[in-house]
């Protein structure tokens, strides 16, 4: 078969470009750095949204919608925040044919405008915790862009919460990190993630602590897949979010913010894709089973339609392709590219035998199955391949993560994967040195892999790597 | 009981302002005309999105995401389109601290940028129809704004499709009008709508025909709840959307676009709300049953929790309120304001008797029901009250719609509702005259109420009214 994609080991960035184009996932928009997410790519994001939204609501948060445009003066209210975001802003200066009195920026993130609402909504300890989330678009100016990974506009969810105490804020933020993000990434997207604390250098602008989920891509680089920030009282003080406590006194609230974006689609592509295309984990897949006619006639279309209906009735997300006006080989290559977990190919001989060919994208097998038992065979394959894809990604990560004792060794190991180095052997100075080789501390963990409360804990381990 | 809202018949606009604030639906954002949609309001929109999205996908359309920013030059490619939208645009002139080479506008609607994509995606008749939809935010500059009804930024879905023939485009567009919009509005939101054709004066900028769903609010005014446009070949020619036909020749495609926005929340409020607050139709309601403890102790919380769990297990969207730190009366008023279809109030005496008080927001009744049979009683109430709310809205509309024969009568009847006037007795000249009294032709229908193909059909009836 002619090669469809540049092989990963020949040129990984080129492979990525190829797959995004050929699987019809996304393309560039007319304005620099903006992207068009095509239906095949958007369906992946829609499934991610559904899975994350369920988990976010399970924690008690409610969705809302805040404005796209933010007065420039809002950003300036928190000193580190404006320093971090002002250079990245897209600015609206005119509307309705007239110049605006004050320029406004397209939200790069919404801590400020939501902080302003919170200051009006929070009066008493009874109003806390206030748990909000929104699904929206944000914009940040980027010089070099790559579809899904770094774009001027992206889609995301941003959660914003206010709490009565530091402890309550910290505990809720950890719940988001583990019960929402890590659970979603590992159990739905089938990508193992390292969770940990960002160093001061990598912290969100305005946060006191940033926690992260770091996934390994198939070129050994890290992708920051989600972050959850403890904002302390920084935004509560800047926006005057105060509550009357049960002690009869006014207190500033403690806030958090946390987000996962369409970068996650990039993580899915680079975390699981191979030289034939995407591999989508069954639990996430918008199309779990793809029922294809090999050619027309002899009851093939009828058998395919019946199989498709049976799968749907059994709760499988099935899609039917009986377009015999397009060559079978071309449709099969397209199915491989789009990474549908299982394919059922039905031709005249299959129908005669009461069978179908079950092609598993992840296991890489082709076996004949009886049309009578097809829904069970598909369900078994989907369950097994979800686990297999996770196990494969976990093994890849383990094979590409080294324990080292010096910074030089860490930088060397980062050429092909992650390095675990005692934080004492790195430190802020080591971070600066590593940066010269495009290596960064992805996060800090305790020796047992758990997430520390602060950088000051003794015996921390730094996870280093190159990153997207 | 102290009055919570300004009564509708005293001052309808004030009633609207009151309910939007007191039911915690939305408020103004910091930039002129922008809105914050609060969790209670957003949950209504989320349910609308879910119901419409199902119906849109049922027609074969797929979701995608197109850029927020559009080059100014794109708008100019279709002459009527730029004339209609350019004065309403919000313009971005700077990014990353530098002036842009070409100013870009925040999308007021996406025909142009999607047309540009379509021109690359459509090659052959095999690629048609191309059926796309996106859920997103858009911005239009507005001098006078009102929450949900007219805001500078709003949320909506915009569908964009390309077809091989005029007939296919027209048939699909009618399917959207009736099977998606009308079905959703009448069977979910419980608001009867008149469907018809817009006159040339009211047509979408760039369309050859605009079809509309017009709902009556409780002050007798019309609200345009959704529109579906036949764009002819205007955008296909402007953006060069061509396909190779089965005849071996190149043809321009025929396109459509169609949208429903967060205005629909305004329609819900003004179409069903009363002097106590919102009334949300059960099929739409994010909270269908609200289980409240009257006060603490004597097994009340346990009985409430058990009832809530039983309702959820039965598929009812139930919410539990056992906050005995807030006075019962205040919580009951809040439940009325938010329009939860049924309330189950449980106090110590109820528990002793194995009963609960079932309060129906739409029927206006309070009856004791046995806790054993509570899920059935709730299911029955929800089904009956969905129908009752629709019947009430339909009767209101019938009582406020008059058949008239002269324009003067039509203008007079429009003071309290709609007027049906032979289009021959109105015409473009009549439209201009009516406009002086703030009365417009909402749509044209055939004498039997069905939707005409064009303004040129004989015997059409014009529906006139004041509008939002
Ligand atoms: Zn304080
Ligand atoms: Zn032509």
Automatic annotation (TrEMBL), chains A, B:
Domain Aminoacyl-transfer RNA synthetases class-II family profile: 41-281
Catalytic activity: tRNA(Pro) + L-proline + ATP = L-prolyl-tRNA(Pro) + AMP + diphosphate
CDD domains with a match to the protein in the record: ProRS_core_arch_euk (cd00778)
EC number: 6.1.1.15
InterPro entries in UniProt: aa-tRNA-synt_IIb (IPR002314), aa-tRNA-synth_II (IPR006195), aa-tRNA-synth_II/BPL/LPL (IPR045864), Anticodon-bd (IPR004154), Anticodon-bd_dom_sf (IPR036621), Pro-tRNA-ligase_IIa (IPR002316), Pro-tRNA-ligase_IIa_arc-type (IPR004499), ProRS_core_arch_euk (IPR033721)
Localization terms from the record: Cytoplasm
UniProt GO BP: prolyl-tRNA aminoacylation
Stated role: Catalyzes the attachment of proline to tRNA(Pro) in a two-step reaction: proline is first activated by ATP to form Pro-AMP and then transferred to the acceptor end of tRNA(Pro).
Designated name of the protein: Proline--tRNA ligase
């Amino acid at each position: 078969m002619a090669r469809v994609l540049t092989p990963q080991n020949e040129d990984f960035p080129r492979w990525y470009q190829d797959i995004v184009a050929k699987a019809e996932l996304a393309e560039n928009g007319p304005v620099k750095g903006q992207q068009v997410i095509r239906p095949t790519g958007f369906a992946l994001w829609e499934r991610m949204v559904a899975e994350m939204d369920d988990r976010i609501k399970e924690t008690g948060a409610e969705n809302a919608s805040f404005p796209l445009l933010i007065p420039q003066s809002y950003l300036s209210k928190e000193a580190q925040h404006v320093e971090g975001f002002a250079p990245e802003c897209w600015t609206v200066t005119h509307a309705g044919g007239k110049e605006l009195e004050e320029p406004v920026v397209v939200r790069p993130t919404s801590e400020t405008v939501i902080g302003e609402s919170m200051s009006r909504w929070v009066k008493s300890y009874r109003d806390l915790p206030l748990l909000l989330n929104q699904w929206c678009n944000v914009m940040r100016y980027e010089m070099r862009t790559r579809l899904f990974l770094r774009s001027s506009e992206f889609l995301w969810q941003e959660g914003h919460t206010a709490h009565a105490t530091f402890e309550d804020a910290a505990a809720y933020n950890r719940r988001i990190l583990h019960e929402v993000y890590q659970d979603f990434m590992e159990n739905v997207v089938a990508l193992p993630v390292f969770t940990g604390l960002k160093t001061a250098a990598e912290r969100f602008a305005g946060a006191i602590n940033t926690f992260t989920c770091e996934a390994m891509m198939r070129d050994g680089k890290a992708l920051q897949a989600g972050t959850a920030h403890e904002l302390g009282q920084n935004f509560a003080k800047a926006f005057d979010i105060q509550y009357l406590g049960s002690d009869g006194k006014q207190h500033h609230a403690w806030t958090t913010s946390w987000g996962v974006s369409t970068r996650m689609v990039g993580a899915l592509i680079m975390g699981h894709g191979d030289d034939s295309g995407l591999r989508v984990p069954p639990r996430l897949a918008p199309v779990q089973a793809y029922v294809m006619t090999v050619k027309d006639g002899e009851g093939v279309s009828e058998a395919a339609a019946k199989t498709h209906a049976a799968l749907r009735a059994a709760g499988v997300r099935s899609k039917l392709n009986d377009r015999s006006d397009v060559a079978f080989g071309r449709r099969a290559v397209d199915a491989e590219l789009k990474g549908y977990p299982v394919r059922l190919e039905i031709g005249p001989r299959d129908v005669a035998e009461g069978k179908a060919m079950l092609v598993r994208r992840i296991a890489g097998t082709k076996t004949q199955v009886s049309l009578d038992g097809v829904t069970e065979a598909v369900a078994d394959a989907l369950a097994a391949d979800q686990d297999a894809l996770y196990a494969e990604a976990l093994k890849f990560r383990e094979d590409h993560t080294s324990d080292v004792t010096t910074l030089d060794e860490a930088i060397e190991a980062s050429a092909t994967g992650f390095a675990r180095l005692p934080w004492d052997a790195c430190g802020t100075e080591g971070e600066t040195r590593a940066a010269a080789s495009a290596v960064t501390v992805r996060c800090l963990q305790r020796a047992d892999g758990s997430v520390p409360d602060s950088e000051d804990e003794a015996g921390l381990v730094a996870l280093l790597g190159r990153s997207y």
